[in-house]
Design brief:
The protein is an alpha+beta fold and about 120 residues long. About 30% of the residues lie in helices and about 20% in strands.
Length: about 120
């Protein structure tokens, strides 16, 4: 079962570009099944131009990353499951407006250690 639509994961800049790694999507669906609640995606795929314009890294252009709108108690539960399902990049923003968790399953590179966790300002 696929809980996430192409439209939900498509680049939000208006270009309409969509690419999502099938293995990552399978992992995300397994996470959703275990979580047993909707997982609202604020950002899935991002085209290279959008990333450059906004000053973002190219992580989302890989089709292997999502930002999930979630806060407080629910974020703790989702994180436990993210570790269980093999997400290797976890970014956390749990202050102010627009609280979210970034999840990706990118491989380790010399310039990108994995597994890793970071926080957003």
């Amino acid at each position: 079962m696929n809980y996430f639509s192409e439209n939900e994961l498509r680049c939000k800049c208006g270009c309409g570009e969509y690419y999502f790694n099938s293995g990552t999507l399978t992992r995300l669906n397994k996470l959703r099944i275990e979580y047993n609640k909707p997982i609202p995606i604020s950002s899935g795929f991002r085209c290279e131009s959008y990333n450059i314009q906004k000053g973002y890294t190219q992580t989302h252009a890989s089709g292997q990353a999502v930002d999930i709108l979630i806060s407080r108690k629910e974020s703790y539960r989702l994180l436990k499951l993210a570790f269980l399902y093999g997400f290797t990049g976890i970014g956390i923003k749990q202050h102010g407006e627009n609280r979210f968790i970034h999840l990706d399953d990118l491989p380790e590179l010399e310039t990108r250690p994995r597994p890793t966790i970071w926080s957003y300002k």
